[in-house]
Amino acid sequence: MNEKSIGIIELSSVAAGYAVADAMLKAANVGIVLSRSICSGKYMVVISGAVDAVESAVKAGAVVANGCLIAQYVFSNLHPDVIAAMGRSQVPEPGGALGILESFTVSALLEGADAAVKAGNVQLLEVRLAMALGGKAFCTMTGDVAAVQAAVEAGRQVIAESGMLVNAVVIPRPHPDAYREIV
User: Fold this and answer.
1) Residue 37 shares a structural domain with residue 62
2) Mean pLDDT for the chain?
3) What is the distance between the alpha carbons of residues 183 and 15, in angstroms, rounded to a whole number?
4) CATH number of the CATH domain containing 121
5) Percent helix, strand, coil in the chain (nearest 5)?
């Protein structure tokens, strides 16, 4: 089990987001990974720290949300590739299959991306969270066709179980120019 974990709270109010971030930081020894307004007037707070600290901080934040809570989640064993891919994009070498998972919420996407990278030998290219996406989130991955199919299916199942799946796609042999659209 990882010594660190990630906690996330999504809110329907920017003002509530500031109050929640403050409450989370005061509740436990955690640090802010992201705390910002996101599309469609929502707010997202992502924290990290030891598992019990993150759990306490998320509970405290949910109490302060005052009716504006959309989602809350604690990832106690998130794959390190998911964290590394948050907010970054890299262009892969053309040749591998391309997989895409898309979710209505950040929390569901993070859970799906984690399941995907643990299920198949894939490289996460990007985890994009809510900015310029109407509050949705997506991730892209590459690898051989079978690995990407297994990874996307694992992620799709997890996101679908939460009712937040927008789409899941595997492109076995994407045109080399298609990779330019990833960044």
Assistant:
1) yes
2) 86
3) 31
4) 3.30.70.1710
5) 40, 35, 25
